[in-house]
Amino acid sequence: MAFSAATSSSPSSSPPATVVPVKTATANAASPSLNMAVPYSPPSWASGGIFKEPPKHGRLPLANLPTPLYRLNAKLWGDRSSQELLPVVDAPHPPQFWIKRDDSTGGVELGGNKIRKLEFLLADALAQGCDSVITIGGEQSNHCRATAAAARMLGLEPHLILRTPKALPLRTTTTTTTTTNPNTDADIDDDDKNNNNNKENNNNDIGFVGNVLMDRMVGSQIYTCSPGEYGRLGSEALVARLAKHLQSLGKKPYPIPVGGSNGLGSWGYMNAVDEVLQQWQSLSASSSSVSSPVSMTLDHVVFACGSGGTAAGIVLGFALAHAKSQTPPPTIHAIGVCDDPDYFYHYVAKIATEMGLSLPLLSSSSTTQPEHDDERNEETVEEFIRRHMLVHQGKGLGYAVSTEQELEFVRNFAQATGIVLDPVYSGKALYHFARYVVPAHPQDFAGKNVLFLHTGGALGLFDKVDTLSSSTNVGAASPCQRLDVYGNGIGLALPAVEGEDG
Fold it and tell me: In the predicted model, what is the mean pLDDT of residues 342-350?
């Protein structure tokens, strides 16, 4: 599909051929204080009343923007004589694989896609005079880690609800009773059925691994729940209950949904699309003088989809930008790492509706026409999302559950590129895209430019150390040898260097 750069400002001078640190309108300039929100105006293609609810309180300059965008080695794509990371595409010119490094939005505390959403959400929290934040996620939640660190930077107290099988059942007795409630078994987790712990033996500490260590380093107040409790009550109810409790203690908490994925947070990735458009325009300008068999159109955009907010910003951003420029947008591939595609189509449509998307205003200039005339309800918004985004099932064995093949792919990708993917989102998503999506329709990708969004989360690898070491041969690929420094005949003896002291 074709690409036409629609920008809100002119790009800077041409960058180097590989890494593109283009300074755009979305870059965070020096600010006297992180808690001073900067005014925010939507990109030109998202203005003019298309959204009824644009951000009211600006955005905080928390992220390191813009993040790099560059092309990876073409040898990543396989050929008939080799088994490479990315599959064989039988065409004169293989796809060009590009990466957008949104794992570089911050340091170990803030890095990843979540901070783009938090720039808008926490600006709203400060504007409302809140003194604390509440959010929720899995035990190794990148979003919870980034929220906690950003909150501390702004003087807010972080409260995190973490879903974990380590949350043991709270029981005051080991006596087993019989009940006539037909839902009894459904109300008890599998872990609960295998544990008859009394109150004295309930140890719900979740340790200090990966993101949890970062949560605790910044002094987060952590509350745990089991997967079953999370599933039955839902994340919104759990957050609301904790908010009510904190309010009873005199606090004014600001609730943030899973992944920061709501109408306000998704503006972070509307902003990111504007950044990509300007970077790609600069790339196109710099390559126009170089003879290349591959055109500089942006044909495919690929990313992991977990809570839907990043997907909402990306699909709406590209659809709107190209509707304004009257050019076909790239094909958007959201690789779902949890839930099923229908869930994501519906939830992304819900976010778009929450943002106040006005399809009647958009439809007059859209490059893809809807099948139905009624464009004023949520169902039509969902149809719009389905026309502009493909959601692929990529959860494998389940959310945050890694197969040996997925982890081996992550290891091989790191060795080939020097880029470490995480096991829950980007690693799982790119593995599924490479192993299933491209082989299913190889000619759709031949000679095309494929942009992969790396959303961060490498801290999650620490939770996979046992599996990585036992099943992926990572140790053999990175051997460790003892130096025989004193010539004892054990280890690797290195000859002395002429002129060496001692």
Answer: 97
Locate 228 and state its tokens: 């079953």
Catalytic residues: 141
Residue of 351, 265, 334 lying closest to 300 (CA atoms): 334
Q: Could you give the strand order of the β-sheet that contains 449-454, starting from the edge strand earlier in sequence?
A: 69-71, 96-101, 449-454, 300-305, 331-336, 390-393
For residue 240, the one-letter residue type is A
Q: What values do phi and psi take at 367, rounded to 5?
A: -85, -15
Of the candidates 298, 281, 382, the residue with the CA atom closest to the CA atom of residue 332? 298
Number of H helices and number of E strands within the chain? Answer: 16, 10
In the predicted structure, residue 448 carries a pLDDT above the cut 70: yes
User: Whole-number mean pLDDT of the chain?
Assistant: 84
Nearest to 42 by CA among 25, 29, 28: 25
9 vs 26: CA distance, rounded Å: 10
Q: What is the pLDDT of residues 143-158, one digit of tens each?
A: 999 999 999 999 999 9
Task: Specify the pLDDT at position 113.
Answer: 98
What tens digit of pLDDT does each residue of 24-54 get?
Answer: 445 665 555 788 899 999 999 999 899 998 9
Contact assessment for residue 460 and residue 210, using Cβ atoms and an 8 Å cutoff = yes
- Count the neighbouring beta carbons within 10 Å of the beta carbon of residue 118: 31
3-state SS, residue 366 = coil
- 101: helix, coil or strand? strand
